[in-house]
Amino acid sequence: IGMTHIMLPFLVLPLYASMKTIDVDCLRAGMNLGASPAATFRQIFFPLSLPGLASGVVIVFVLCLGFFVTPALMGGGKVIMWAMRMEQTTSLYSNWGAGAALGVVLLAVTLALLGLF
């Protein structure tokens, strides 16, 4: 819940900027050609707002990769995120090699997921 409250603006703002650039005349043209409001949203408005949604999702995904403080405070140490595991491995266990390996795995998975996106 805490991460949602913090990350929601990073998704909403690019989506809002994308929606604001949609020309109202495109929506009016769809309505004038007989499309219902739901069809106008589904066939015109939603596809035109997808770039803003995609950029917001990528921004939130990348920011959540290194999220550290909020899960530590709200989870009470019970919830371990990837960044927290990396920090514990390097500082608590003094295993710099394993911490670096975790970082490389995180980088590889992130690049693979962003490549698929």
Summarize model confidence as the mean pLDDT. 93
Task: Give the oligomeric state.
Answer: single chain
Helix count? 6
Domain count: the total is 2
The parts where pLDDT drops under 50 for at least 5 residues are none
Distance between the termini: 25 Å
- Please tally the β strands and state the result: 0
Q: How would you explain this protein's 3D organization?
A:
The two termini are 25 Å apart. The protein is an all-alpha fold. The protein folds into two domains: 1-65, no CATH class; 67-117, no CATH class. It has six helices and no strands.
Task: Give the topology, please.
Layout: H1 2-20, H2 24-32, H3 37-65, H4 69-75, H5 82-92, H6 96-116
Helix pairs in contact: 1-3, 2-3, 5-6
In short:
This protein is 82% helix and 0% strand. The protein is mostly helical and 117 residues long. Helix 1 (2-20) crosses helix 3 (37-65), helix 2 (24-32) runs antiparallel to helix 3 (37-65) and helix 5 (82-92) packs antiparallel against helix 6.
